[in-house]
């Protein structure tokens, strides 16, 4: 009797899940279609606005990286947290996170501060690797990747890359 009652209850639960699952799938499909019809948003533009030293520990260098974030869209961007990673010559050089909050106005800009950490060992190994043939590179390629946190549908990723001409910097 207990086995028969268990099977009856289990069968009833499965039958009750079907309509709920179908409604959920229909709602999810409608949500995806609504997102696909949203107007196109231009990607945010991010550049390094400044660097300030911070106290570090032992074998690390800490800096406050100030990012100028430009919003080329007609709606403001609310963010809650930021993360970034800086690669130099294809290798991770620094990374950082911030729990800062704010708003980047529509067709406007804001400066966001993110503390980053650089391992001095990583810097030393990269320097040795780049000077393996006895000459320093003339240019350093860099890539800055990050994300501004927000709601599940509101996070925005960014990426910027370029080259630093070391000969020009030395003058």
In short:
The chain is α+β, with helices and mostly antiparallel strands and 171 residues long. It is built from 3 helices and 7 strands. It folds into 2 domains: 1-38; 45-170, Immunoglobulins (Immunoglobulin-like, Sandwich).
Keywords:
seven-stranded antiparallel sheet; 3 helices; alpha+beta; Immunoglobulin-like; 171 residues; 7 strands
Q: Compute the gyration radius: what is it?
A: 25 Å
Distance between the termini: 91 Å
CATH class category name of the largest domain: Mainly Beta
Strand content: over 45%
CATH topology of the largest domain: Immunoglobulin-like
Query: What general form does the structure show?
Result: elongated
For the largest beta-sheet, the strand count, sense and barrel status come to:
7 strands, antiparallel
Helix coverage percent? 25-40%
Give me the CATH architecture of the largest domain, please: Sandwich
Identify low-pLDDT runs: 4-13, 34-38
Average pLDDT over all residues: 80
Task: Describe the model.
With 171 residues, this protein is α+β, with helices and mostly antiparallel strands. The protein folds into two domains: 1-38; 45-170, Immunoglobulins (Immunoglobulin-like, Sandwich). 30% of the residues lie in helices and 47% in strands. A seven-stranded antiparallel β-sheet has the order 1-2-5-4-3-6-7. β4 (91-104) and β5 form a beta hairpin. The radius of gyration is 25 Å and the shape is elongated.
Question: How would the blueprint of this fold be written?
Answer:
Layout: H1 2-36, E1 45-54, E2 60-71, E3 77-88, E4 91-104, E5 108-119, H2 120-130, E6 139-148, E7 156-165, H3 166-170
Antiparallel strand pairs: 1-2, 2-5, 3-4, 3-6, 4-5, 6-7
